[in-house]
Amino acid sequence: MRILIVTIIGIFSLTIWSKEEGAYVSKDDVIVAETGLSPLNTDVNDSDPVNCGDPLNYLPDPDFPNHMPSRQVKVNFHFMYDKNGNNNISKEKAPAYIKELIWNINHKIKKNVKMHLPLNNNNPALYPGYQYVLTPDPNKKNDTGIYYHYDDELYWFVNKGKTRNDYSKGVFEKYGHLKNEVLNVFVMPHHPDSLESKSYRNQLCGIAFPSQNWTKIAGSYATLKDTIIKKGKPFVRSAWFCHGVYNHELGHVLGLAHTWGGNDGCEDTPNHNNCYSQGQGRGNCRENWSNNVMDYNTHQNSWSPCQIGIVQRNFANKRSSQRKVLVRTWCELDNDNPVMIEKDITWKGARDLESHIVIQPGNTLTIKCRVSLPREAQIVVQKGATLILDGATIENDCDEQWAGIRVIGKGGRKGKVVLLNNAKLENMRVPFRN
Q1: Cβ–Cβ under 8 Å, residues 358 and 339
Q2: Strands 214-218, 205-209: parallel, antiparallel or unpaired by DSSP?
Q3: Which domains, and CATH codes, for the chain?
Q4: What is the pLDDT of residues 25-75, one digit of tens each?
Q5: Among the listed ranges 73-77, 202-206, 227-231, which one has the minimum average pLDDT value?
Q6: DSSP string spanning 295-316?
Q7: 66 forms bridges with which residues in the sheet?
Q8: Distance between CA atoms of 168 and 164, rounded to whole angstroms?
């Protein structure tokens, strides 16, 4: 280990958090420690020795929401009709339907409720940290992000029998728009011939293709046009009724698996009998019913902590398909809402921040994985505070530069910067000075 002498150069004044003396860090400000440990992998993968791939390292902190900003997932919608424009929600009603649908699926994400299974669990109901946004083509005038296709061969969805086409990719290959830039959702009807069969269920269902960022969902039209009697009055199940199947299939695209019958990568989603509702299904459904979004149940309104971590890990993985359909909000600096470090914190998961980082006096921020900072963002190390980069990479993921590290104070009270295990500082506009 070698410890170098601190040198103060210049005056730092930033009214958001400090008017004290400070300067961009120089080589003389940095403690470089060789611990003898193997260099740590700063990318996101499950074999990372510092657990940068562990889903539980990607959980949003309710007390510090901007430590892991909410992500926006770009979506567009395709309504499939026969050549005469029949068998689906009409073109006139489709925009209002999608507006209501997106509000409802986002509302369920925001209002994540506690998991019913495992019974008597203490797992928190965290905000999953993402929302869907309808995304028009920016290169097309008056584009709405909602598209209408008339095709006798491809408009329908069948998930059983000799004409089954649920796994067919033909509709996406022909009509997909902004592929791998926007998550494409195909709103399809069940084939009218299939619905005439008593053995074919007229239900909400779908199929997802995560590697290509698209899904097709059937049954919305049948649900909307059916009027049921509830408490003696006619009742129409509009777009709100479909939130579960959409969040389920979109959840597959974001990297989540079914929970009931196999290993979905989460210990907090136990195997179970997949009861549709309390008292309905196989086994003991009076107690062992699920409300998880990735099960087949009447609720589909709960995301477990591990499931949230999987989604956020995929968003942070620079090689993932899911990252391609995010709004890149981490490229523009939010100058007014710095990430304030007000207690000792260790970041093990990779993250993409939207503002400056300010480590408050007496506190330590330890970063072990990749962190992207927006253009001109700074890391400010206040008096008596410490920044430890332990195998981490600090970068700008937008082909631009973040400003650099500033330290505040003088002498023994000056902020401290420690580099361990080949930590990297990339795309930094003001590099360490000699």
Answers
A1: yes
A2: antiparallel
A3: 2-44+333-425 (no CATH), 69-316 (3.40.390.10)
A4: 766 667 766 543 333 333 444 334 568 999 999 999 999 999 999 999 999
A5: 227-231
A6: SSSS---B--HHHHHHHHHHHH
A7: none
A8: 9
